[in-house]
Amino acid sequence: MNAADKIFIENCKEILQNGVWDNEYDVRPRWEDGTPAHTIKKFGIVNRYNLEESFPILTLRKTNFKAAVDELLWIWQKKSNNVNDLDSHIWDSWADGTGSIGKAYGYQLGIKHKYKEGEFNQVDRVIYDLKNNPYSRRILTNIYNFEDLHEMHLYPCAYSMTFNVSGNKLNAILNQRSQDMLAANNWNVVQYSILVHMMAQISGLEAGELVHVIADAHIYDRHVPIIEELIKNKSFDAPKIEVDKNITDFYDFKVDSFKLIDYKFNPVKIKVPIAV
Ligand SMILES: Nc1nc(=O)c2c([nH]1)NC[C@@H]1CN(c3ccc(C(=O)N[C@@H](CCC(=O)O)C(=O)O)cc3)CN21
Ligand SMILES: O=c1ccn([C@H]2C[C@H](O)[C@@H](COP(=O)(O)O)O2)c(=O)[nH]1
Known about the structure:
Layout: H1 3-18, E1 20-21, E2 39-50, H2 65-76, H3 106-110, E3 112-115, E4 118-121, H4 122-132, E5 140-142, E6 158-166, E7 169-180, H5 181-202, E8 206-220, H6 224-230, E9 240-243, E10 258-261
Parallel strand pairs: 7-8
Antiparallel strand pairs: 1-2, 2-8, 3-4, 5-6, 6-7, 9-10
Helix pairs in contact: 2-5
This protein binds 5,10-methenyl-6,7,8-trihydrofolic acid and ligand LAUPNLSC.
Residues 28-29, 154-155, 157-158, 178-180, 184, 188 line the site of the ligand O=c1ccn([C@H]2C[C@H](O)[C@@H](COP(=O)(O)O)O2)c(=O)[nH]1.
């Protein structure tokens, strides 16, 4: 079985078998009909994806690769916080009348900070260090900015990336405080794997390992029956990822710069309700 499916199935089984329900608590998220969206969770999951071996996209069901990459570029490249700059509608429920999601995600990555070498936003500082100072142990981003939390329509979930170079390999840790396993686990893994491939290519490095640290890994009550069926599905071999090798500037990558070769998946049509 391919590595991504295996990890996903193991995580879900662990949550369903040994997890803890929050039914006794007055939780924040709601279903569309106003019912509280309760979860069963496991605290503290660490998954390792070897990007040299395979591209970690689920085959148990299709992950919308293009929409996931589009959202990643929206945050990391456009540094936008406006849903009008996004091709999909996944953020519409958190946007105000102007399309803004508040001072979250892309907005935080775009803020400039002072350094000895001048002013950089968080993304450009990572790029600068990978090129000029690759053995630094200080190459990281963090968008969990307490000062601005009250102006974010949703607090950042995947909030920090630590980049680290070993030999000619670029490894990374994605820190995530909260994970909706069905809607966004593989979505987030695919996005940050692509980010490692992007950063590696523009720095003359090879993509190594993505370590995904999840604090609260949960399955929403209405997702439990969907997950129970999903993890019984057949798994296919992982596809290959092809990145346009001509790109040397981080800001030149487009959604179409990445191609999945031989992406096979179960053609199940699942309607995933999203808790808001
Ligand atoms: N409860 C919740 N779960 C999330 O995953 C989530 C939030 N809220 N709030 C902010 C963002 C928005 N994200 C989302 C929202 C919707 C989908 C979604 O509709 N997924 C569909 C496929 C979408 C597509 O094909 O384009 C799915 O089947 O998983 C995914 C991620 C991730 N985040
Ligand atoms: O990239 C993302 C963004 C959001 N999520 C999920 C995780 C939670 O289910 C909700 C956020 O609710 P909180 O109460 O603020 O934790 O969104 C995700 O998995 N990945």
